[in-house]
Design goal:
Number of domains: 1
CATH topology: OB fold (Dihydrolipoamide Acetyltransferase, E2P)
Largest sheet: 6 strands, mixed
Order of helices and strands: EEEEEEHEE
Helix content: under 10%
Oligomer: single chain
Number of strands: 8
Structural class: mainly beta
CATH architecture: Beta Barrel
Radius of gyration: 16 Å
Length: 109
C-alpha cells in the first residue's frame, strides 16, 4: 500500500470497456480522461475515455465512439479530470446520408 495526499492508496486493476448505447436516454457518468485514437482496416478514428469506479479492486475505463461526441469534446471546455455525464440522444442523418449517433454532455462544476 502506498500513501497519497488523500491517504492510503491501493493498486487497482484497469478493466477496459466499450459503451454502446442502444436506447435514447442511456447515460454514462464518470471522469473524462481525454481522447484516444483507434484504428482498423477501414481507417482511424477517435474515442473518448471515461473512467468509472468498478469494484473495490478495479477501475472501469469506457471508450465511447461517435463523431459528434468527439467533436463536442474537442470544441468544448471540458478539461481532462472533470466529471461528465454523457447522454445518448439518438441518431441523426448526416449530409452524406450516414447515420450518426448524437449525445449531450454535462459537466459537474
Amino acid at each position: 500500500m502506498a500513501e497519497g495526499a488523500a491517504g492510503p492508496m491501493i493498486w487497482k486493476r484497469i478493466s477496459p470497456r466499450v459503451w454502446k448505447p442502444t436506447g435514447e436516454g442511456e447515460v454514462l457518468e464518470g471522469v473524462y480522461r481525454g481522447l484516444a485514437s483507434r484504428g482498423a482496416v477501414d481507417g482511424q478514428w477517435s474515442v473518448a475515455l471515461i473512467e468509472r469506479d468498478g469494484d473495490a479492486d478495479k477501475i472501469e475505463v469506457y471508450s465511447v465512439g461517435g463523431v459528434r461526441l468527439v467533436a463536442l469534446l474537442q470544441t468544448s471546455i471540458v478539461a481532462i479530470g472533470e466529471r461528465v455525464r454523457i447522454t445518448f440522444t439518438g441518431h441523426e442523418t448526416t449530409l452524406n446520408g450516414y447515420e450518426a449517433k448524437t449525445f449531450e454532455i454535462e459537466v459537474l462544476r
